[in-house]
Specification:
Elements lengths: L5 E2 L2 E2 H8 L3 E5 H14 L4 E6 L6 H9 L3 E4 L2 H9 L7 E3 L6 H10 L3 E4 L2 H14 L3 E8 L9 E2 L9 E2 H6 L10 E7 L3 E2 L4 H22 L5 E3 L17 H18 L4 E6 L1 H4 L3 E13 L2 E6 L22 E3 L9 E6 L8 E8 L7 E4 L21 E6 L2 E6 L4 H6 L6 H10 L1
Parallel strand pairs: 3-21, 4-5, 4-14, 5-6, 6-7, 7-8, 8-10, 8-11, 11-13, 13-14, 16-18
Antiparallel strand pairs: 1-2, 3-15, 9-12, 15-16, 15-20, 17-20, 18-19, 21-22
Amino acid sequence: MSAEFEIGGVGSTELAERYGTPSFVYDGNELATRLTGLRERLHPELEYFFSLKSNPNVSICALLHAHGARAEVSSMAELLTAKRAGVAPENIIFLGPGKSRAELTACLDEDIYAVVCESFGELDELDELARAKGVVARVALRVNPSFAVKGSGLTMGGKPRQFGIDEEQLFAADGLGGRHSNIRLMGVQVYMGTRILSEEPIVENTRRIFELAERLARRHGFDLELVDIGGGLGIAYFAGERDLDLDLLATRLNPVIDEFAARHPETRLVMELGRFLTAMSGTYVVRVRYVKTSLGQNFAVTDGGTNHHMAAVGIGSYVKRDFPMRLLNRFDEPADESWHVTGPLCTPNDVLGKKIALPPVRPGDLLGVFRSGAYGPTASPVLFLSHGYPAEVLVYNGQSYLISERDRPADLLRRQHLHDVAALAAAGLDG
């Protein structure tokens, strides 16, 4: 009998039979290990704020929070999720370039630790709302820095961005610290890039962010209660990439943090983490419906596709590259054939992987796309062809739990409203 792949100690066949496919399955012990590994290695003053945008499931947030994570949110739903997961208001920050009045009001009502403001207009809006409520809003300024460090992946600095306020504009502004009677400037946030896979850019980014934060606080006369160095720690998905060496990162980063913490012992030091915490834990599990050949190429047509896993198309990359993928129910068989793995959608772009090395594939087999715990269904067009949201499952300490139900056709139709447009049209013609 062939061996099968286990997720958190539970067999993939058992999971597929119990929860169906397609589904995202998360290894909760891997989630916890990712966070504890950082906490054991990096500077003890560093706090980790989980970026819910990477995986906004409340059970994922709750598990990470149980192991010490705080929360970074960017929408009303994410704020409510963090609260439901048990994160205290003093451990929540709210980011985003286009916050609504309702979201800003909720930040004030919930008394979260800081609103990260990204424009002068947002400062004016928040000040107005806080004045109406008779409160003072705590604000960290998101800075779009003038510098960019080579190796920062998708860089967020040194170029025009919708995020943050340009460094030059902040230093040119006069009286910013006292301009708004109901805002207290108390921190600085800078997010330099994402998917960083080299240790040195993280160290250099942090060093420059600390220096920028100190200069900005002096310029506008506020105390540095918070410095958020962003995050962007990457995960190796593709051939030729390597995962970060956390021991090496600690050796180089900890002295930089130590120097700053010695100068500012009362400042909270924050690192935002999303993909780094969640990606490794997730497996997208699909079942093969049909196998076929076309012009000599093998195709495995599965029940799930890019409507659930848009990252597999290569979103954010100029070149389509494949996530790691294996046959789950016959995990030990030699992968000596080439297969295109596709989904059920009526588009040629619905390709999870091209020329994937797999054993001979049969209908009913289970395929897994690994490192899929971040930016899965919530970053994908789940309503395309009305297939809906897949199931999500958490496996923790050998037990599996359904943490998000899959959409059924009735669920999708329930949100729609049928009006007798034919009768309305006929009435119009008669009139």
